[in-house]
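Can't paste images in this forum, so I'm doing it all in text. The chain is below; anyone willing to post the predicted structure tokens underneath?
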Amino acid sequence: MRVLLLKDVYKLGRAGDVKKVADGFGRNFLLPQGLAVLATPGALKQADYIRHKAGEQRARLNQELGAVADRIQGVRLVFPAKAGETGKLYGSITTGMIGEALQRESGAEVDRRQIDCQPIKALGVHTARIRLTIDLIPEITIVVHREGESPETAYTLEPAAAPEEEFAELASALEEDEAAAQAEAEPSDDEGAAETEEA
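Text version of the structure:
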């Protein structure tokens, strides 16, 4: 479905943009939340007005939140955690926990929904983005170390693979296995020649 964005939507576009989105995403999220309307000819006539008004509001917000972004940018949050031998946590570090720690560390109050980060389930050094506005997205560092050890030990760990990377590695291994199985199933040229001679 084609929609006209009424508000800035992170990773999708700015107010006034016309975007093609999945029907479910449009129907279940964008339209009910008032973030977009169907891109009908009548709605499209309003696009320039929406873009202009949103630009003014964005500039005002960016100015107001600029100081907050400066305070947050580069903040390092440290979490001691219990973990198994492989470095996987017993539990996880959630966006709610990150928000509370960020408020203690920087004094900036951030809604957990503004934190762009999956729950952290492994020891190591991780990065999260804080979506203040579509233009202001400061990054913070999250250090998760084993309880009883120094936070610096987290820097020596191999970074945990993202779920997409793990999936890609698994798919690649499966393709290699299938190729090997296919090569074994097909007779080699020598075997084929030997069978022809015997016949």
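Strands lie at 2-5, 18-20, 36-38, 76-81, 88-93, 115-116, 120-122, 124-130, 139-146. The chain has a mean pLDDT of 82.
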